TrEMBL record:
Protein name per UniProt: Coenzyme A biosynthesis bifunctional protein CoaBC
Keyword Ion transport: no
GO molecular function ontology, one term from the record: phosphopantothenate--cysteine ligase activity
EC number of this enzyme: 4.1.1.36, 6.3.2.5
UniProt remark on cofactor binding: Binds 1 FMN per subunit.
Similarity comment text for this entry: In the C-terminal section; belongs to the PPC synthetase family.
Keyword presence, RNA-binding: no
Residues of the full protein shown: 183 to 409 of 415
Length: 227
């Protein structure tokens, strides 16, 4: 029997993890996006791979090196991430949606640079992007154990619990991004992991340490559910 060392305990477990922002083009030179750095998702991918898992990382545009042993697919827009995520999800045991997916995109992308014009106001017409994690959690065949993130500034746990239920997730990681040292672009984070019938708070620590705890907790909950 193999000892449960840090490097071998997740051998054979397949993860798909999304990370970073998405970028929604307005015209050939402009886009809508957000402040996600990708650091949390990359830390999760690094931790799972270091524990011996088979990891696919689907990343929006970020300035980060691919963690050792991780298979990476780069995408730009939410629609591209949606396609790549669903393709990978059906061959995964665990899906973690850590990406800050843009909720909306331009209804029409201009093919040439938009000109300023004489008006003092500009109205953008936006349409909703697909909800990637809800699509993964809603799969009827080959549905992976699905874990979301909820970045909130207020009523953090209550909004996160609502998302756990409405998106039919197995777990959700509630992230209070109003805290000065947590969340976007920080090297540290603090979260509460929630599931039906339980929760665990993980205090402010490095994203690397936090990622290791999260991967361990998620894998445990996954094996409890599937046995
Ligand atoms: N998510 C997704 N696809 C989207 C929007 C969000 O997969 N189009 C995922 C995120 O990756 C995250 C979870 O849904 O795992 C929650 O994201 P969040 O932005 O907090 O939730 P929304 O449902 O978009 O709600 P809102 O932004 O209004 O709070
Ligand atoms: Ca959102």
């Amino acid at each position: 029997e193999r000892p449960a060392t840090a490097t071998s305990r997740l051998t054979g477990l397949r993860f798909t993890i999304t990370a970073g922002p998405t970028r929604e083009a307005l015209d050939p030179v402009r886009y809508l996006s957000n402040h996600s750095s990708g650091k949390m998702g990359f830390a999760l991918a690094a931790a799972a791979a270091a524990m011996g898992a088979d990891v696919t990382l689907i990343s929006g545009p970020v300035q980060l090196a691919t963690p050792a042993g991780v298979k990476r697919t780069d995408v730009i827009s939410a629609q591209q991430m949606h396609e790549a995520a669903l393709k990978a999800a059906v061959n995964s045991d665990i899906f973690i949606g850590c990406a800050a997916v843009a909720d909306y995109r331009a209804a029409e992308v201009a093919t040439s640079k938009l000109k300023k014009g004489s008006s003092e106001q500009l109205q953008l017409n936006l349409i909703k992007n697909p909800d990637i994690i809800a699509a993964v959690a809603g799969l009827t065949k080959q549905r992976p154990f699905t874990v979301g993130f909820a970045a909130e500034t207020n009523d953090v746990l209550s909004y996160a619990r609502k998302k756990l239920t409405s998106k039919k997730l197995d777990m959700i990681c509630a992230n209070d991004v109003s805290q000065p040292d947590a969340g976007f672009n920080s090297d540290q984070n603090a979260v509460t992991l929630l599931w039906q019938g339980g929760e665990q708070t993980l205090a402010l620590q490095s994203k690397a340490a936090l990622a290791e705890s999260l991967i361990t907790l998620i894998s445990k909950q996954f094996s409890n559910k599937s046995t």
